[in-house]
Queue: 2 jobs
Job 1
Amino acid sequence: MQDFSFYNPTRIEFGAGKIASLDQLVPASAHVLVLYGGESARRTGTLDEVTAALGQRKVQLFGGIEPNPSFETLMEAVDLVRRNNIDFLLAVGGGSVIDGTKFVAAAALFEGDPWEILLSMGQNIEKALSFGTVLTLPATGSEMNQGSVITRKLLQAKLPFKSERVYPRFSVLDPVKTYTLPARQVANGVVDAFVHVMEQYLTYPAQAPVQDRFAEGLLQTLIEIGPKALAEPQDYQTRASLMWTATLALNGLIGAGVPQDWATHMLGHELTALHHLDHAQTLAVVLPEMLRQRKASKLGKLVQYAERVWNIHQGSDDHKAEAAIECTRDFFESVGVKTRLGDYGLGTEHIDGIIASLEKHGMVALGEHDDVTPALCRRVLLASL
Ligand code: NZQ
Ligand code: ZN
């Protein structure tokens, strides 16, 4: 195990009806801006429930944060916060609204051009407004982590930042709020959480048995409950398990003290920025071939993954690794997320542009060994056609 420091200040309120606890969680004197996405929060009644729970507090609303939240839209919220002396933010939505709120929290107090936050990957954030979240979509783990990913449409750039100053102060996780999700978003959530675990687990053996067993448990849980969450949208226990699994997949716990990869995510971000695939769709396309192209350096963990997660015990190490990669692809397909570039209308002619964008964003030495070059990413994409 490597040295690490682990810090996570987010308080979780988990369960049906927990939105009512906002009254205790949000400071009584706060001037609150509630941020949300398109129409889902209003349509499902969640927004009304939230404003009712906030009682007599001074509350303003900011809607319209889009999936893959944009710098352009979020700067309107920053302006609103500054003009109205808002001192507390409340995100109501999925990863996009929460990520967007993290950006607004930091940008509102930032001196200079807030795009610099992305260019420094969050290192230049000195302060941020306090905020909480009400999660409506289990997927990203943003409700309990310090990361955020922001898109600047004008530049076709989708870039991540992180900072200890943008941990949510609290997150309300009510599984009932997920009942209204379209199947596509549930499936996306299963795939995103799965790949978050893989980015922190499938590297090389690092003498971290508890992190490995945690990760394998999360993967097995997703394999078990993913199809059920789709088939029985109102099964509380299944949705509760999915929600908690997605949170634990990226709240820092399983990644502490172990090498991490993230090449699949960084290449995936380019696919979203240029071609508008959903985040999880990009991961389902990239991960299987990313594992295959790097099979030699990942063999130890691939075999462990094959044996412990997919119960593959027959054949050579290479055979086990190949079989596990195919099980992974089949799992994504089985929950309804397509795994080939062609499924999304992309072909060989799009690859040069994706690679150029990766280079432009400095994503030229990715992965746990910094050896995932643009040339390797090109091979991954060609194999994913
Ligand atoms: O916009 P509305 O109308 O609210 O609809 C949303 C949106 O269209 C809908 N939705 C959310 N909750 C709903 C609902 N519809 C019905 N009922 C509900 N309860 O779902 C759609 C997708 O929402 P979005 O927030 O975009 O999805 P997700 O949670 O998958 O977030 C994706 C974003 O998170 C980033 C991704 O890159 C992407 O931008 N990520 C953030 C991470 C982090 N902060 O740690 C890590 C991830 O790897 C990921 O990169
Ligand atoms: Zn992700």
Note: The first strand starts at residue 11 and ends at 14.
Job 2
Amino acid sequence: MSQLTIALTKGRILKETLPLLAEVGIVPSEDIASSRKLMFATNRDDIRLLVLRGTDVPTYVQFGAADLGIAGKDTLLENGDDGYYEPIDLGISRCRLMTAGMVDAPPVTGRIRVATKYINVARRYYAEKGVQADIIKLYGAMELAPLIELCDEIVDIVDTGNTLKANGLEPRELIDVVSSRLIVNKGALKIKHKLIQPLLDGFSSLVAARVQRESEAASA
Ligand code: AMP
């Protein structure tokens, strides 16, 4: 029997992914949140789940170690899109990819120093604006970097903006809006089409129903 492997992003995206999976009929056979396992069987004999760091999800899908994946658009923008399609915007875990800096900082003259874990996104963004930027790779706690003058700006994801505010920073320019996407390995879509297509249809109907609900709520 042919099997499908779906790579999920752990953390806040996972919390919003599990209800969607349940709605398309996929339920892990144990509680993912309270387990230290990385691979989970499901109620469907032909589907298993991997729980990974977001940055590893596109890699697993690109190389076919997972057939499908769910990851934030920020991660996909940083990673590039080799080897997979991105057919569905699931509309969950929405946030914004932004530049941010210290409140009331004087404008930078000359080269700007930017700290971020999104070095590819940042390089492209500043190059497109024609701004000369030195990009510094960090793995976390980006908000600290301008505070101790490691950099002039950061590129990070912003949801409520509270984390920036708590560290004396302000959002500056929007680079992209972010939400989680379903991605599919290109080869798997051909070879396992019969298994994958019903799932794509299921996710698409869920998303269409949500968009409909949201537009009704907005016009009410
Ligand atoms: P906030 O204080 O609400 O602006 O949240 C900012 C922090 O929460 C960011 O530095 C991110 O690390 C994290 N965050 C916010 N939204 C998301 C998301 N959709 N996916 C992953 N991490 C997020």
Note: Residues 12-13, 72, 93, 95, 156-163 surround adenosine monophosphate (CB under 6 Å).
